[in-house]
Amino acid sequence: MSFPLDPQIDFDFNARESVASFEDEFGKLVTLSNHAIATLPRQASLVFDEASGAALDLYGVETGRPVFLWIHGGYWRLGNKEGNAFAAPGLVANDVAVAVMDYSLAPAVNLEQIVHEVRSAVAWLHREGPALGLDTRKIHVGGSSAGGHLTGAVIAGGWHAEYGLPENIIGAALALSGIFDLEPLLSTQVNSWMNMDMDTVAALSPLRHIPDQSETQLVLSVGGDERDGFLRETDRFHTAWAAKGHAVTQIEMAGFNHFDITGTLTDPNAKLVQATLNAIRACP
After folding, report:
1. pLDDT confidence of 284, banded at 50, 70, 90?
2. pLDDT of 1 strictly over 70
3. Does the reported pTM lie above 0.90?
4. H or E element: which one contains 223?
5. Which of 51, 82, 143, 150 is the most buried (most CB within 10 A)?
6. Domains observed in the chain
7. Which keywords appear in this protein's UniProt record, sorted alphabetically (predicted)?
8. 186: helix, coil or strand?
9. How far is CA 8 from CA 198, 207, 230, in A?
10. What span, in angstroms and rounded, lies between the C-alpha atoms of 132 and 108?
């Protein structure tokens, strides 16, 4: 089913055109990622989903460390784990192991399959992490843009039993520039490759699946220079999560855009890194 393009909504959610040069912003993140790969202890391409072959890289594994799973953005059709290694250095320097995952990309697969793979990565870390020496009593997660949506899908309620997980498995969650209600995207160019409909919206919008009970310590942020669609989505999710009585902190990032906000994760002292560490420590 096709939906008419709404020029204003499309503008509000067009991240690529929200910066002067997407190529420059992307290039900066690639440089940061290449440095992380070259300098951090790394276990590469560990397959967590046999059916799809999806794999993750583990950085900074040491006995007793908690693990944080990073889920990349790219509107579900672009990106890979190598290009997102920038998410590891700041947390690794603070004694947190970081897993950076791949997932199958649209339009070859639909959003349901992508969400399945992300949840499978959580289950794999919970199951296999102890043999690596990791503390997986809680799995901590984060992502940006589409990865923010997928983070929301992981902290949603109702899916854990199917994957052999306890309902309270997710500890800290860092959602940057996320899309938490998919309905606006039906009227954007994004749906030309996502092929979503109202059933997709109902099933996979995190805003519509906030659990009644949650121990997750949620950290939200969005760049102050981002377009209104992303600003609205973060504010709406903050309000809805807090309305359930759940723990949530929103970090202001004035002067940052949709892309360079993620690059701050390389800095051990960055606001988003420290907020994530505080959330991990606050987990029951």
Report:
1. confident
2. no
3. yes
4. strand 217-223
5. 150
6. 7-250+258-282 (3.40.50.1820)
7. Hydrolase
8. helix
9. 20, 22, 13
10. 33
